[in-house]
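Proteins fold reproducibly. Consider a sample protein:
=====
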Amino acid sequence: MRIDANELALIGELTDSEFDSFRACVRILLSKTFLIRGFEHEEQLYAFALRNIRLLELWFSCADIELKRDEGLGVIACRAGHEMRTRLGREETCALLVFRLLYEERRADLRLSQFPSVTVGEFLRKYQTLTGIQPRKTRMADIFRRLSFFKLVSLSGDPADPDSSLVLYPSLALALDNDAIEEIENALELEQTDSEADEDEQIIDGDIEDGEDES
C-alpha cells in the first residue's frame, strides 16, 4: 500500500479518547495478532477499528504490515511479512490444522455470539487420525498454552483431562485459509507416504537378508 502522508496526518486529528482507542487497537494487534468482536472487552475496540480501518491500515503499512478482516466472523488480523511472523514447529502446525478443521465442523452449530468448543479428548483423537501419531499430553499442554496466547483457542480445565473444554475462536479461520489447509494436508500425506515407503523398503531388505542367511 502506498502511504498517503495527508491521510496519515489524520491520526493527529483524533480526539484524546479516540487516540487512546487507536493505540489500544494497535497494541492488541501487534501483541496478540487478532482483534475479536466476540470478546466482551474488545467489542467496542473492534467497532472503533472498523470505523477507522483506513487509518489503522495506513499506520501498519508504515511497517509493511497488512490488516485482514472478516466482518462476518468479527475478526481483524495483523498479517506481517514472512520475516516477522511467528514460527510454528511441526506439532504446533498440525495442532493448528486440527483446530481449524474442528472449527469448520462445529461452527454450523453455533448460536448467536457463541464460540464452538471441543473436548481435549476429541482434539487428541482427531490429531492422531490426521497425523498417524499418538500425541504426547505434556507437549499438547504446551501447544494449547501457546495457541491460547495468540487468541486462537482457550482451554478450560486440566489439559491432561480428556473432558476439559477447548473453545475455538473465529481467528482460526484467518490464521489458516483454505490454501494453507491444503498445503499442510498435502505435506502430511507426502510425509506419511514416504514413511510407508521406508517401512516397505526395510521389510524387503529384511526378506533378502533372511534368504541369504538360509543359503
